[in-house]
Design goal:
The chain has 373 residues and is of the alpha/beta class. It folds into 2 domains: 4-100 and 109-244, Aspartate Aminotransferase, domain 2 (3-Layer(aba) Sandwich); 247-368, Aspartate Aminotransferase, domain 1, CATH 3.90.1150. The protein contains 13 helices and 14 strands. Strands 1-9-8-5-4-2-3 form a 7-stranded mixed beta sheet, with helices on both faces. The protein has a 3-stranded antiparallel beta sheet with strand order 12-13-14.
């Protein structure tokens, strides 16, 4: 699905030097490379505070801990997303409330959010799925009206830009009260292990987040609150600092590949190519089709037989996972979410995709539908 070896080969000298320099320095935890990456990511995102941490799931958990919510408080999340988004909510004794999604962007539905708010609701966690921003302007308006927090799950959309109705633009992850992201290797900005970060414009929240990520201490051995141990190690930070310089190039390469897919696959009526939101660009962490006619799994199997990988993100709604059934009533169903779970299929998309490889994928799909060149 991604060519990490090819990506590394292009910048191997810079990566190798960054890693060796860090090793030679012996500053393996919170070393200069962590501080450098933090400052450069703050500049890239135009946000006041970036707090690096161990992974994207930790980022979500720490963000929620910083809000000091109480057991039983409700947090609205899309039902169509990766498990981590709801997992940390449940882990903290909070209640994940499953929202419907938009059939075009696959992101959380504004109407669904509004219908779920009650006196127990304390926060909303919009997920910028597949690389495209959720509709943040109305979400922030709803949050302000109802005195709710907004935590952006930006694990799949770092580098994406959201445009407000007045023309103002902001990077995803910097619009809500807190933003979170993951640097898992396959992400658009990925390290060579685990890593994550938390973003905020609020200085008070930033101080609390830093404390929580560092055992609840501001001063060593003086623990003011209960925290966790979640750090981005110096070697991963050094790698990310190099790759951050190329993030916009990576995004362009992904968009070029997506455009090729769009143009080539539009002739197949049984496929629906990804729609673009009017108020967000797309960084294409995933290129996700909707396969009509109940043939998604057949197409996936056919491509696999030709050595072409594809993935279903995600085959089961969160509320049907055993871990979360207790949060919904018997027979609970979200029609659009379940439709997506049975129709979506993601094709390979990455920074090193060649025209030859992409054309082979396209022609294989056309052959499946018996469409001649």
């Amino acid at each position: 699905m991604v060519d990490l070896k090819g990506q590394y080969a292009k910048i191997s000298e810079q990566i190798d030097e960054a890693v060796l320099s860090t090793v030679r320095s012996a500053h393996y935890i919170n070393g200069p490379s962590v501080k450098s990456f933090q400052a450069n990511l703050e500049a890239y995102l135009s946000v006041e505070h970036v707090i690096p941490c161990a992974n994207g799931t930790d980022a979500l958990q720490i963000a929620l801990m910083a809000l000091e919510l109480k057991a039983g408080d409700e947090v609205i999340v899309p039902a169509f997303t990766y498990v981590a988004t709801a997992e940390v909510i449940s882990l903290l004794g909070l209640v994940p409330v499953m929202a419907e999604v938009d059939p075009d962007s696959f992101n959380i539905s504004i109407e669904s959010i509004e219908s779920l708010i009650n006196e127990k609701t304390k926060a909303i966690v919009p997920v910028h799925l597949y690389g495209q921003s959720a509709d943040m302007e109305p979400i922030m308006n709803i949050a302000k009206k109802n005195n709710l927090y907004v935590i952006e799950d930006n694990a799949q959309a770092i580098g994406a830009t959201y445009t407000f109705s007045d023309g103002k633009q902001m990077k995803t992850g910097t619009i809500g009260h807190i933003g979170t992201t993951s640097f898992f290797p396959s992400k658009n900005l990925g390290c060579y292990g685990d890593g994550g970060a938390i973003m905020t414009r609020d200085e008070i929240l930033a101080k609390r987040i830093r404390m929580i990520a560092n055992h609840g201490q501001r001063k060593k051995y003086y623990h003011e609150i209960t925290g966790v141990n979640s750090r981005l190690d110096s070697i991963q930070a050094a790698i990310l600092d190099v790759k951050l310089k190329y993030l916009d190039d990576y995004i362009k390469a992904r968009n070029d590949m997506a455009g090729y897919y769009d143009e080539s696959l539009k002739v197949i009526q049984q496929l629906e190519t990804p729609k673009r939101s009017a108020n967000s660009d797309h960084v294409f962490h995933q290129y996700t089709l909707k396969v009509k006619g109940g043939r998604r799994d057949d197409l996936k199997e056919y491509l696999s037989g030709l050595g072409i990988p594809s993935m279903v993100y995600y085959p089961i709604p969160l509320y049907k996972q055993n871990a979360f059934k207790k949060f919904v009533g018997q027979g609970f169903q979200l029609k659009l979410t379940e439709e997506l779970c049975s129709t979506v299929l993601s094709l390979p998309i990455h920074t090193e995709g060649s025209t030859k490889e992409t054309n082979f994928i396209v022609e294989s799909i056309k052959a499946f539908y018996a469409i001649k060149k």
